[in-house]
């Protein structure tokens, strides 16, 4: 697990300062526009990554709901590639990624509750194979096209004939 995403104590990263509060209040003024832009970006990513759905699990949500897309989650579901290999490739092309991680494997929760991962195999699968890419409201069409082109470059390097799914 990456050091920057390890939580050793309860409450880590839950502090709010006056400055963060002011930023939050200022952000409320643009909330609808930001969510709309994030949703538009996510629609473009979903459409552009659709051809890779055999290899990637893309986000979905029920029709009666909407998604704000603070980030864009992806889970690798093919045995021929690894999350770490894909994210290293994306990072080498300056596309920032973050691992998707449920809190079950965090040191503080292991200490408090023991090893819960065997009880939650889907959360474990998501932790091992999932990651996020950006979906922020200031991304341009050019940015999104670049991301999709890099995914295309990655997948064009593989022959997936006879390959089986992780799921």
Automatic annotation (TrEMBL):
Matching Gene3D superfamilies: Aspartate Aminotransferase, domain 1
Report if keyword Manganese is assigned.
no
**Record bears the keyword Transferase:** yes
Taxonomically, which superkingdom? Bacteria
Picking any one GO molecular function of the record gives: pyridoxal phosphate binding
Task: Supply the alphabetized keyword list.
Answer: Aminotransferase, Transferase
Q: What residue ranges carry the coiled-coil annotation? A: none
Q: Name one Pfam family in it.
A: DegT_DnrJ_EryC1
Q: Which GO terms describe its biological process?
A: polysaccharide biosynthetic process
UniProt-recorded name of the protein: DegT/DnrJ/EryC1/StrS family aminotransferase
